Amino acid sequence: MKTRTKFTALLLAACTMGSALTGCQGSTGAASSSAQSANAAVSSANSQKPVSITVWHEAEDGIVKPLKTELDKLSPNITVTFQRKQNMSDALKLSGNDPSSAPDLYLMAHDKTGTFAQMGILAPVTDFISESELSDLIPMTVKAGTYQDKIYQLPVYFETQMLIYNKALMKKVPTTTDDWLSYMKANTDTKKGTYALVEQHSTAYYAAAWMHSFGATIIDGEGKPELNSQAMKDALTYHKRFVAYEPTDGEYNTDTTLFLSGKAQAIIQGPWLIPSIKSAGIDYGVAPLPTVNSTGKPLMPYSGVEGMYVLKNAESAKKDAVAAVLRQLLKPEAGIALAEAADEAPANSKCYDDAAVSENASLMDMKNTAQTAVPMQNVPQMDVMWTVTENALSAINKNNQEIAAQLEDAQKKAIEGIAAMQ
Amino acid sequence: MNKKSRPWFYSFPALAVISLIILFPILYTGYLSFTNMNIYHWFNPGIIGFENYRKALFVFDSGFLPALLRTILWTVLNMAIQVAVSFLISVLLNSEGLVLKNFYKTLLMFPWAMPAYVSILLWRLGIFNSQFGLLNHWLSLLKIEPVNWLNGNLSAFLCCMVVNLWMAFPFMILTMDGAIQSIDKSYYESAVLEGAGTFTKMTKITYPMIRPIIMPAVILTTFVTFKQFDTVYLMTQQVGSKTGADIHTVITYAYEKAFITSNYGYSAAISILIFIIIIALTVISKKYIREGGAQ
Fold this sequence. Notes:
The structure holds two protein chains of two kinds.
Chain A: H1 2-47, E1 51-57, H2 61-71, E2 78-84, H3 88-95, E3 105-109, H4 113-119, E4 122-123, H5 139-144, E5 146-147, E6 150-151, E7 153-160, E8 162-166, H6 177-187, E9 195-198, H7 204-213, H8 230-243, H9 252-260, E10 264-269, H10 274-279, E11 284-287, E12 302-311, H11 312-317, H12 319-330, H13 332-342, E13 345-346, H14 355-358, H15 361-369, E14 374-375, H16 382-397, H17 403-421
Parallel strand pairs in A: 1-2, 1-3, 9-10, 12-14
Antiparallel strand pairs in A: 3-12, 4-12, 5-6, 7-12, 7-13, 8-10, 8-11
Helix pairs in contact in A: 2-13, 7-8, 16-17
Chain B: H1 6-32, H2 51-58, H3 64-93, H4 101-113, H5 116-127, H6 134-141, H7 153-181, H8 185-193, H9 198-226, H10 230-237, H11 250-261, H12 264-294
Helix pairs in contact in B: 1-12, 2-12, 3-7, 3-9, 4-7, 5-10, 7-9, 7-10, 9-12, 11-12
């Protein structure tokens, strides 16, 4: 009996150990299979056998589908697989340098370019294609993915903010900020919950449009915070006059619900809201962002450029295949397909010659805004600035804190945070 | 194999697994806390001694100490209310002649059945939202100006406490209810014969009898409350939905530091400090229980 118990105990212990290590074995297996596929890719590139390329992304299916269709044209020589990756930024930090688990490419907005370039996991796209091949791209989009004079991103499409209004509620759209303020005073009733304009006033990405039109910036190109500049104080003081006539929480959910339910006449948002507006059956129009009377400049929003990055791991193993993928995405056809399927503004300027794109009001508005839009800064220090700036904006606009004091405090925290990065 | 080494041999697989999934991450975090692992030294971090600890403990304006004090206040208030209210509810649930007892108990367990993430967002968007929230809807019916519940430091702190308590009550009530049911009824019968009232029965019989049973649950909940992240973060700190209230706890503070600065060395130091605090609390509470048991 005793021997039997011992045997059972040993068996159970072995099972526990075995099952616990199964997970490890799985990843080891995956690692070895990835390593094998990497080796296979090298040899296949030489012998014209199919090469598989893995792309990580966090984009909607509507965006990935047309890109996949375009890249499928490279098969059977190259097979491209798109893999949705939650928290891709964190995943890249953990495994971006690990050939067994990292992808070959990833699709992402440009603002993390500096972070990943600094970590040393990225290969410049000009290692695969020549810089002259990028000449058809809108200059702003190329600048967005350039860090320390190296182009790390192949721009695919870009997004920026636009002023969308409900034609049934708003007959004439004001063109200057002073006119907007008068209009908001006359057409906002906070007790009834009806608004002339809603915007995410305390989110750094949106509030930056006001800052830029006053000549202020969150951070300069060298990574130095600029939150306590006089221009910044002026911009936020002026902006706060408008916030008084907007919903206090200024969150995406609140703003979009108000607009989609007809309780807000206009909204400053990105193109991602258009499908919901269409579904809600709203007769909408797109208007240029207003010009600030005192500076004579329009609101200059941030632009986010989504594009393809190449990980260093793929540089030696799959160079030709990666180059072919990048060239395929550079073709106007890819941008046009994306514009048609997902209402996204292509980075390739040639796409705008196509009627399907040029007749799309929101895309043309974004193309025009691209003239003044400011690409989000891509220096690593920006990671600190998003949170610090948003903390200050929320405290000022939502918690009614004093502007100058908050900006001084935010500047101090930004400097501390940036120092803590080192 | 001798008698002394045999237990080690049998428990080796379990110890190996525990070491792999619990001990190794702790040791690795400890190692990271002495390095300058950040995006500038991602693949070649160097040892920098106690620099990260110095930053965390002695840079007073860095936010760590205010967050620590706030966390202690948060834990004390939450636990005091949780234990007191749960005790009262449990006693009431065990009152003689109470009808629909099981129905009430099921209702009280409801917050526990919901995922915390869903509960918190429901409270945030459904109850506290300044535009569409239930509280402001009621205020508007009373012709009272709407309140921005989550924007001020004090009001946001209180709102977070309400949500946390709502989610925490079921566990404490369940534990206390079970403990109360285990008390022999004859104690109460004797007390009644001696002329004891409700208050005396509660303080002289119920509380001393359930104390050893509920103490592990109280200690466990204290730790969970101390390292609470979801409630404070999702209610006030979520990127893109910040409310303007600064009510960081040590965990949300550590999270923000870790993920915005990508300085894993500094974040690891903060994590180790929190770990040490929790270990210290465990040792103190164990001693307290032992002494309590001896009495």
